[in-house]
Specification:
The mean pLDDT is 77. This protein has a two-stranded antiparallel ribbon with strand order 1-2. The chain has a domain at 47-88. The protein has 2 helices and 2 strands; from the N terminus they run E-E-H-H. The chain has helices at residues 49-79, 114-126; strands at residues 10-12, 23-25. Residues 1-29, 76-128 are annotated as: Disordered. Residues 20-29 have a biased composition (Low complexity).
Length: 128
């Protein structure tokens, strides 16, 4: 017996965001599974030059605002008798290799065919 066409069921919207008369559709192949919320931002680099420039200026403004906020909070903290320090690595100072974080994965050994081994052997024989 052939399977019928997968049709979406129409459900009425409920909850805070529901507006009168609005309906939402669910896909037919979901079979009651819950939609997982994707967390985090999907930040993609802009392609158009105007958007690239706008993004660069926005990043510069953000850096300036962050620096100003850090300065203001450190002033408030020190004026009341406490201390507030933003810890950063000084320019040009390398971290200890043990403190850098996880090491990169080791490369898997390359398996060579007998033909490749023979070519390498021939090349090594004639190299000076």
């Amino acid at each position: 017996m052939p399977q019928g066409q997968l049709k979406s069921r129409v459900k009425t919207a409920r909850g805070r965001r529901a507006t009168v008369g609005k309906t939402t559709t669910t896909t037919g192949n979901r079979h009651g599974k819950i939609i997982k919320q994707r967390k985090g931002t999907f930040e993609k680099k802009p392609k158009k030059t105007a958007a690239v420039v706008a993004r660069a200026t926005s990043a510069a403004i953000t850096r300036e605002v962050n620096a100003k906020n850090e300065l203001e909070f450190s002033r408030k903290a020190t004026s009341s008798g406490g201390t507030f320090r933003v810890l950063r690595r000084p320019e040009g100072v390398e971290l200890d290799p043990r403190l850098r974080g996880p090491k990169p994965k080791k490369a898997k050994p390359v398996v060579k065919t007998p033909g490749q081994l023979q070519k390498e052997k021939e090349a090594a024989k004639w190299s000076y």
